[in-house]
Amino acid sequence: MPTPAQSTKVMLFNxxxxxxxxxxxxxxxxRKAAAEKMARAEVxxxxxxxxKNRACDPxxxxxxxxxxxxxxxxxxxxxxxxxxxxxxRYQALLEEELARSFPDNKKIDxxxxxxxxxxxxxxxxxxxRARLVVKxxxxxxxxxxxxxxxx
Length: 151
Fold this sequence. Notes:
Elements: H1 8-16, H2 25-37, H3 57-72, H4 81-99, H5 105-122, H6 126-150
């Protein structure tokens, strides 16, 4: 089974404490550079029209909370707004179902899985964010190899 993706902070901590997989400083620097490259310019997300309906007020509240925090770390872009809105809607439906006095377990399970899969796609989980950084670091390494081969 492959090693789960980790942020550079975790990797440095593990190296200092001699825990986990050993990574060279060059590998860690590549990962740091890829993480810094992911930082985006200021983004203003537009709220999709369907979230402005009165029926979607709980989802709109979740949207505002998540976008505030996500924009602070540069996690979202304008292209993410529709998927993020869908995640907010599923999260609101899940919270609504959990608040019922007799919740439907099948519905809770289905909504929970949907919300988690959307969260993974959006990079809302720590593992997903670390995976994005790993992908960028590996792409940079491949580009450098291709440049050397072409020269």
